[in-house]
Amino acid sequence: MVDLAIKGNKVLTSSGIQKAVVLVKDGLIVDIRAELPENFSGDVLDIQDSVLMPGVIDPHVHINEPGRTDWEGFDTVTRAAIVGGLTTLVDMPLNSSPVTTTAQAFDQKIAATSGQLHTNVGFWGGLVPGNTDEIERLIDKGVLGFKAFLTHSGIDDFPNVTEADLRKAMPIIARHGLPLLVHCELSTDEKLAIGDNRSYQNYLSSRPKEWEDTAIAMMIRLCEEHNCRTHIVHLSSANSIEPIARAKQKGLPLTVETGQHYLFFNAEMIQDGQTQFKCAPPIREKENNDQLWEALRSGIIDFVATDHSPAPPDLKQMPTGNFMTAWGGIASLQLALPVLWTAARQRGFDVTDMARWLSEKPAQLAGLSHRKGRIVVGYDADLVVWSPDDSFVVSAEDVLHKHKITPYLGEELYGIVEQTYLGGVKVFEDGEMVMLKAGKVIYQQNDRLSETSKKRTD
Predict the structure, then answer these.
(1) What sequence ranges are listed for the domain Amidohydrolase-related (predicted)?
(2) Are 30 and 377 in contact (CB under 8 A)?
(3) CATH superfamily of the domain spanning 55-370+388-414
(4) Which parts of 163-275 fold into alpha helices (H)?
(5) Please, which residues have CB within 8 angstroms of residue 312's CB and are 6 or more apart in sequence?
(6) Can you give the pTM of this predicted structure?
(7) pLDDT tens by residue, 289-324
């Protein structure tokens, strides 16, 4: 017997948005039809004119546990995710302690998830100098790919790699068909920022576009040389759009994301001392960011991810407003969908674009495109119901991140999440969590799901 039927006038199927009924059984989408079957005896949800979309997938999240749970943690971040319609997260390897650069550290991270996951979570392994021998051990553990920095990560335990390090690692990663995600900034020793440490323009000048452009050019070259899936995270420099387009035209396995904050805010809007806006690479000028929108429209940029990277108020230098010493990271996970939709609707995009940028394309990066990211028969029934025409004002009381510091406070955003489903089970509805601890760990190997542990079968 089918467990659930969701019927609505705006169901985002692979054929576009249409009136449809989605039938769910044992956590999977088993049918999509025009009308409810006769004599249907399961539960029926009529969402009317709300949108039914695949759950949001964010492959760029800093959860920080174990070791820095005072910054964030599995409990708070996955609660915030579910409320925001996010059904799958992929955790970055650097902000926990220990960092996820060894198989042993990965085991510690998995142990820390126990009893805390309210949405599904997968993991990237870390690539740092000297851990080449750990790459295949981490792959055996089930990481979805690897993350590297080309400049200081902000965490001393996660140093940046050099071109020589990449040349050792990329052939191994390529052999397994996994992606290498890269923070692309190649810094120089030249002191580029002088003057007032509270000045945003001073901070912006300290991380110029050239840092990104040089790094991206190197990664394009190495991508072609090693035929290794290469993913550029949080693109902010519009100067690199054309080289990326040429690389894609050549058929290189290159993908690119940008962040919501580069599309929603512009440097001209940021006042001195507002360190809640600090991120790296920095939010650039409107002219630059308009070009990012056009690259997203054309598909040169594949999708959008939050790079949720929270920190306590003292690390964000909220009392002093010192941009040069503040932690570089923007907290926004819960608002991923409404932030992007609010900005996109003003530019003429529609909800089908949201599904592509927030669900389908991120699933491809994480190796989950055969079962997540679309409303298709046989796929996991990870779903979000939301109202694109309703708005709300972001308040600290509504933010479920561990810390309420976010540049979106006070912003009116469109797109209210009404319900979230994990495997066909309703876990959030109308502002309330209706089921806790329904999330699972996502492993790369055979794409098996497990709540706390994975046994390898050969």
Answers:
(1) 51-398
(2) yes
(3) Metal-dependent hydrolases (3.20.20.140)
(4) 163-175, 200-206, 209-226, 241-249, 260-264
(5) 70, 71, 403
(6) 0.96
(7) 999 999 999 999 999 999 999 999 999 999 999 999
